[in-house]
Specification:
The chain is an alpha+beta fold. It has one domain. The strands form two sheets. Strands 1, 2, 3, 4 and 5 form a five-stranded antiparallel β-sheet that branches. The protein has a four-stranded antiparallel β-sheet with strand order 6-7-8-9. The two termini are 19 Å apart.
Length: 167
Amino acid sequence: MLHIESYIIRTKKFSIRDINNIDEDLFVDVKNIQSLDASALDYDYLHGAICIVYKDKVVLGFKHWDLVDQLWYYFIDALIQLKSDSKSEFTFPDQPLLVSIEKKGLDYLTIRIQDSIVHVPSMDFIASMYESAKTFFDCLLLLFPEKSSDIQISIDQVAALKEAYNL
């Protein structure tokens, strides 16, 4: 029903000329980090994608690639903000793509990414985002152990999400 995966573009030198015709072979699922070469990546500009599919509808896909570690941080921060607010918004780190997450009643969230709108069960979405973000940053630690103090900031933010929602 809800599927969330994180991908990293396998090299810092890549070319995407048409977002409607992306070579998905450029992207590596973070759970397959053994197939990534950290020396071919730029930690400070780590391009990738968060793919979110809900009931066979692509909410986010490869055409929404960006600085994936920062995008994860923005999503987690927005979900924490929703604990006290009814709506949270942010733009992608490196492009003017607006993301809006809004509470709808007690049990649902409305997620808007540009013209795409989806309604998802709140706790299912938040719990799945937590698990996927945790997996992403744990894999990032394995890929870039020398950056552990930087990555720990994001891991702490993911832990704050878990605590905020008692996951």
